Amino acid sequence: MQSGWCARLFFAVVGALALAGLVTGTACTRWGQPGPLTPTIAPLMSLYVDANAGSDTTGNGSIGKPFKTLTKAVDVLIAAKEVASSVTIYMAVGSYTAANGEIFPIVVPKIVTIKGSGYGRGPKSGTFINGAGEDTIFEKLVHAPARTAFATLEVVPPANVGTGVGISNVYVGATKISLPGSNAFYASLDAIGTVSASDASFGSGILATLRNLDGVLVAGGSFTCTSCAIHGNDFGIGGLSVPLPTASPYASAPTISLLRGDADSTIAATIVNIITDGSVNVSATSETFERGLYAFSDALSPVLSVPVAGAIDFGGGATQSVGGNDFIGARRTEISISRKNETVSALDDTWNPNQQRANRNGIYRRMKTFSAGAAGKNVTIAHDATGSTVMVGPAPVPTPTPSTTPSIGPTPTSTPT
């Protein structure tokens, strides 16, 4: 059922990873390194970037003399001898392109928040990080051939201790990209480290007619997104385990966590919105899945053999998602499971109506568990995917726990003598 589209879908990655099956040890690589820079003396707290009015030559990163490129700001951050506990790079409205001096992919190896402007007005009127370059770090991690992986932004495990890289109020993508062949692929963001995003768009500007141009690749890292719009031609988000040089391959599973906040929270991909290799923890709450043949699939070819399946929670599962996701409109099936012992919890969601016993409003009034052999518009589980289940329906109402502490009555008043 899935063999045809899966072979084509991630053909570039799977082809690039053909050598990765031989990987038995930890890959070695170096994160981004800046050019020669004068290190800052005072603790660095903030940097300002303006693609239109800034200068990488005469600017110093202050609000009055901003840099021109995000590349320069990240290099200064890397070179800084002292940084504050919280550092923010403020990006003005504009298009941040190679023509303006950006060097892609922009690799972020330190804890920082990247904050743009004008989000919600579209890439042309907001902060648009627009371009692509060869993702040599990913290629080295998986022992892939050169010029098979490309990206706009890349977040890697940081040299300093912290919670990760924050990204907000920006558009990330590429309006002009030409891949060197059918074995190459592009993702606007490669999350090898920890990324926490909000009010952001990934996969912006990519042409829908071109293959292998995608939204977010979670390669061994963690990607949390609140109110994000994610676009892709083959996939919106792809997640897989890779051999990281900073930790054991099984130190922690890659994670994808999606949540609707106060703005658009949609994944729209041509083939599959979220695809994993079966090892990734996935959580989604109030997310809208659009356009694809599939909303979720675990059919991505793995790089590593991971013995424990990832936890998939679209409602009522391990991450305590409250559901509220819209699984409507997939042209094949919403949730497609091909691996053994994969457990998906998808309670309190809305599905294609009048399909697989969902009512005309797309609601399952009673809890129902699909198992191997299920096939339909909402859930399909391969016949040989023994032990795999998808649970749908209403979440159980929690039963109040009676108090074990006896109540204390009112204190008696003394009787007057």
What would you say this structure looks like, in words?
This protein is mostly beta strands and 417 residues long. It has two domains: 3-21 and 39-310; 322-396, no CATH class. 7% of the residues lie in helices and 34% in strands. It contains four helices and 29 strands. The protein has a 19-stranded mixed sheet that branches. Helix 3 links the parallel strand 1 and strand 2. The longest helix is centred in the N-terminal third of the chain and has 10 residues, at 70-79. The chain starts with a helix and ends in a 24-residue tail after the last strand. Mean pLDDT is 88; it is low at 7-12 and 14-30.
Give the tags:
2 domains; 417 residues; mainly beta; single chain
**Structural class category:** mainly beta
Main beta-sheet strand count, sense and barrel state: 19 strands, mixed
The assembly state of the depicted protein chains is: single chain
Mean pLDDT, all residues = 88
Uncertain spans, ≥5 residues at pLDDT below 50? 7-12, 14-30
- Which geometry do the CA atoms define? globular
Q: Measured on Cα atoms, how large is the radius of gyration?
A: 24 Å
Strand proportion, as a percent range, falls in 25-35%
Indicate the percent of residues in helices: under 10%
CA(first)-CA(last) distance: 91 Å
E-strand count = 29
Can you count the helices? 4
Number of domains: 2
